[in-house]
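Q: Study each token:
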Amino acid sequence: MQFSLRKNMEEELKEDPFITCKKCGRRSRKSQWISHYYACPVCGKLKNVSASYRLSVIFDKGSIRLQDQNITSQDPLNFPGYKEKLEATKDKTGLMESAVTATGKIGGQKAECIILDSRFFMGSMSDAVGEKVTRGIEYATKHHLPLIIFAASGGARMQEGIFSLMQMAKTSDAIEEYSRNGGLYISVLTHPTTGGVTASFATLADITLAEPGALIGFAGPRVIEQTIGKKLPAGFQRSEYLYQHGFVDKIVPREDLRETLMMLLKLHGMKVKEA
């Protein structure tokens, strides 16, 4: 099984022409969601999207080259039911793992992109995910490419225990090596970005962007409230709150992301042609 760019708009519309927003409950035509970059046409809440969609939004048409497509979890702990769940998720998503790595061009500038797809085990970090992320970072280091990572994760994958937690150090070390070699790393935090991913490569970037309304943190707000016995401030751990407190450099709507990335690449001396 190999990952490929997903169905085009016409095929999607044949499946179900409507999407119901989980926030406001309003039902809108899928064509409207697509034209709004999968944000609710009524309230603006973002819908989680596939890795292929993100690639198609930021990269020049026809420039995408996928990498390491066959890396997948080997179930290192023989966790009961894990292999069956992995196979079902692969069939459902068309992915071998939650991490998708690719090169492509943004305004003619080649870049390395790593995306955690929340449809696959909520983007949780397995041994295979850590390996794919590390290989993507090392490729960017070797070829002196700007690095863009879209983080979306529920944290460590519990079915892999310590093997999952080890990926925090592994990916962080790869980022450090990339930084020592003068690379430009842009992190895009999406909903949700939590746990070990937040505590490692997702928050080690030169520039940190976030999507509107994204939940970003280590432990979830309910766990924190139960631990400290206090009610958290309104909007705590949402991207807007983190931006106000200096944790995020900029909140970028999806429709502005490609233009923002092009601007950042140009500011760092790269040759980017206007779309």
